[in-house]
Amino acid sequence: MNVTVAGRTRHFRTVWFDAENNAVQLIEQRLLPHQFEISATRDFRATATAIRDMIVRGAPAIAATAAYGLAQGARAFRGSNLAKFAAHVEAVFQTLKAARPTAVDPVNAMNQVRAAMAPGESVEEQQALALAAAEQFAQESVAHCEAIGRHGARLIRAGARVLTHCNAGWLACVDVGTATAPIYAAQAQGRKIHVFCDETRPRCQGATLTAWELAQQGVSHQVIADNAAGHLMQRGEVDLVIVGSDRVLGRTGEIANKIGTYTKAVLAHRHRIPFYVAIPLSTIDWSLRAGADIPIEERSEDEVLGAWGAVGNFKSQISNLKSLYVRVANPTSGARNPGFDVTPAELITGIITPAGIFKPRELWRRRHELGG
Ligand code: MRU
């Protein structure tokens, strides 16, 4: 999407690959919205750390990062022994997979890269195939988001007030976004929309990333405290909820997404507000049989006990701002910090996919058209 910083507009993807330097290039999301910087990782371990530490985050974005990371690791191998190369690629795969456990997209993306490498008859050939496959994954991911936009735009009437949780926008993908794709498509068709961005404690991806993204794209929006959604729904101020997901179970239609998504689904159900989940095909897990089996990432208690922000003169250059972590909670208290929750199928109105909008329990029957 286009980014305007200090009056200059340029197109950026969230993640891309610099083949000459064997480096993964990433928008440094921890600095947004106060600073816009690009960060490069020069080996697969640094790429895994960038995923774990959330320089890049959002299921499709970490999938493309992992795909590039696998190609990066493969390309760093020196030698011609295919067995040793295979063992090295397996170690790279496991390192990247372990970075964040809940999203299935990185595993699906890396499996796609590994399958594309298999016909290569030499290390060199497999290295070239790995990079081509990672590029193809990134390209397909963008195409999937565009298709989500085309299918989802019809759900958004002029004047609609849409609630979204966390960031499932273009920063969470390679480009365009999942939950935001229908919003951008409706905007391109000339409809005015207002978006409520859940703040999304503890890391505030809604207040920082979604709000910045919507501001960049000129979409009317307001940040709300996570606890405000029920009140707005009760007063008839929310027409539609659209969220992303880190893992959708193809067998049951359950979805894992940022902690607090389940709460919003319960509230939407209570107020008869449509609740949609927008996903590329890489987010579908065709093997797990129950939502309770989805690995839920537990993150550092510091995220709950405090908050990150910036201090300085907000009216002057954004680079004058200084990032800061402040302790909020009682100093002697600990915290529990599950990063995701699971929403059952019966609370979901529809899943917006690149192939159309389906009921959650329809996915399994449609598995052939959905890449299952
Ligand atoms: O912890 P994060 O910021 O990676 O969580 C992101 C989300 O929960 C998104 O909603 C999800 O990855 C879908 S992104 C299209």
CATH class of the largest domain: Alpha Beta
Mean pLDDT: 97
Strands ordered across the widest β-sheet: 8-7-6-9-12-17-18
CATH topology call of the largest domain:
Rossmann fold
Query: Distance N terminus to C terminus?
Result: 30 Å
- The topology string of helices and strands comes to EEEEEHHHHHEHEHEHEEEHEEHEEEEE
* Total domain modules: 2
Q: Estimate the global geometry from the Cα principal axes.
A: globular
* Bound small-molecule species: 5-S-methyl-1-O-phosphono-5-thio-D-ribulose
Largest sheet: 7 strands, mixed
Percent in helix: 25-40%
Beta content? 15-25%
Number of helices: 10
Q: Report the oligomer.
A: single chain
What does the model show?
The chain is of the alpha/beta class and 372 residues long. It folds into two domains: 145 residues, Four Helix Bundle (Hemerythrin (Met), subunit A) (Up-down Bundle), CATH 1.20.120.420; 170 residues, 3-Layer(aba) Sandwich (Rossmann fold), CATH 3.40.50.10470. It is 34% helix and 20% strand. The chain is built from ten helices and 18 strands. The strands form five sheets. Strands 8-7-6-9-12-17-18 form a seven-stranded mixed β-sheet, sandwiched between helices. A four-stranded mixed β-sheet has the order 13-10-11-16, covered by helices on one side. Helix 6 links the parallel strand 6 and strand 7. Helix 2 runs antiparallel to helix 3 and helix 5 packs across helix 6. It is globular and about 65 Å long. The model has no long low-confidence stretch (mean pLDDT 97). 5-S-methyl-1-O-phosphono-5-thio-D-ribulose (MRU) binds next to helix 2 and strand 11. 5-S-methyl-1-O-phosphono-5-thio-D-ribulose binds next to helix 2 and strand 11.
